[in-house]
């Protein structure tokens, strides 16, 4: 059942990619490894009690839509500020009859106004530097919630110390994976310790222009 849905999603992605630039990765086997398997690395890090999950800058649905298919008992909000990408996500959600996924084409800095401290888990893959995505994501988390950004290595961790402090969060663990038994991948497990000041995230564009 899940496999059928993942296959259909792969098919819809490849079809749409012929007419619009959803992903620069075009070969089927590469899409399976670099998008689908890479997203699945997160699955074992999700806990039974994680019910509400947000994926900011999801693009064509990675990692959020893959995880939503694998976890029909959890609610996912997939966010991307590019409307045509969200239109594609909505087509897939309708086609696969997914009941646990909602979408938004707002920027994170706008969407926060109605979604502050509502999520158990936040996700981001390939969206921006760790310092920047911390400011986008931590305000959406409940106290005790976890942000699980995917990165290729730990090079952005040191310069993110100030952002972690300002956002009352700490790194709990760095999880190391081998994608397809070859490429290194990491997931940084970040826990929110206390409420986030209402001044974060700052206005649209500022987190990226002038990171914490
Ligand atoms: C490089 S793509 C990565 C897409 C997907 N996560 C993946 O790994 O294939 C980054 C996406 O983040 C979106 N994005 C960047 N900043 C954003 C923000 N502040 N709010 C919402 N979406 C944002 C962009 O529109 C873009 O589609």
UniProtKB/TrEMBL annotation:
Q: Recorded GO terms, molecular function?
A: rRNA (guanine-N7-)-methyltransferase activity
Report the top EC class in one word: transferase
Q: Where in the cell is it found?
A: Cytoplasm
- CDD domains per record: AdoMet_MTases
Transferase in keyword set: yes
Q: What is its EC number?
A: 2.1.1.-
Q: Name the keywords, alphabetized.
A: Cytoplasm, Methyltransferase, rRNA processing, S-adenosyl-L-methionine, Transferase
Recorded GO cellular component terms are: cytosol
Question: Where does this protein chiefly localize?
Answer: cytoplasm
Superkingdom of the source? Bacteria
Chain positions recorded as S-adenosyl-L-methionine binding sites: 57, 62, 108-109, 125
| Pfam families xref list | GidB
InterPro entries for the chain: rRNA_ssu_MeTfrase_G, SAM-dependent_MTases_sf
Q: What PANTHER family does this protein's entry cite?
A: S-ADENOSYL-L-METHIONINE-DEPENDENT METHYLTRANSFERASES SUPERFAMILY PROTEIN
Q: Which family does it belong to?
A: Belongs to the methyltransferase superfamily. RNA methyltransferase RsmG family.
Q: What does this protein do?
A: Specifically methylates the N7 position of a guanine in 16S rRNA.
The name on file for this protein is: Ribosomal RNA small subunit methyltransferase G
Top-level taxonomy: Bacteria, Fusobacteriati, Fusobacteriota, Fusobacteriia, Fusobacteriales
């Amino acid at each position: 059942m899940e496999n059928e849905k993942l296959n259909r999603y792969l098919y819809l992605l490849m079809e749409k990619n012929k007419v619009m630039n959803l992903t620069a990765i075009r070969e089927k086997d590469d899409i399976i490894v670099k998008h689908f398997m890479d997203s699945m690395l997160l699955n074992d890090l999700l806990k039974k009690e994680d019910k509400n999950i947000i994926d900011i800058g999801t693009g064509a649905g990675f990692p959020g839509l893959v995880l939503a298919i694998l976890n029909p008992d959890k609610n996912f909000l997939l966010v991307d500020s590019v409307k045509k990408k969200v239109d594609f996500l909505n087509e897939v959600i309708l086609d696969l009859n997914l009941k646990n996924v909602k979408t938004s084409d707002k920027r994170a800095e706008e969407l926060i106004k109605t979604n502050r401290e509502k999520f158990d888990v936040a996700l981001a893959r390939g969206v921006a530097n760790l310092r920047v995505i911390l400011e986008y994501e931590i305000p959406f988390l409940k106290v005790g919630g976890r942000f699980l950004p995917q990165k290729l290595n730990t090079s952005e961790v040191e310069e993110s110390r100030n952002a972690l402090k300002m956002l009352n969060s700490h790194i709990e663990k760095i999880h190391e994976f081998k994608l397809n038994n070859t490429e290194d991948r990491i997931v940084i497990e970040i826990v929110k310790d206390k409420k986030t000041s209402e001044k974060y995230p700052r206005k649209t564009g500022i987190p990226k222009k002038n990171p914490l």
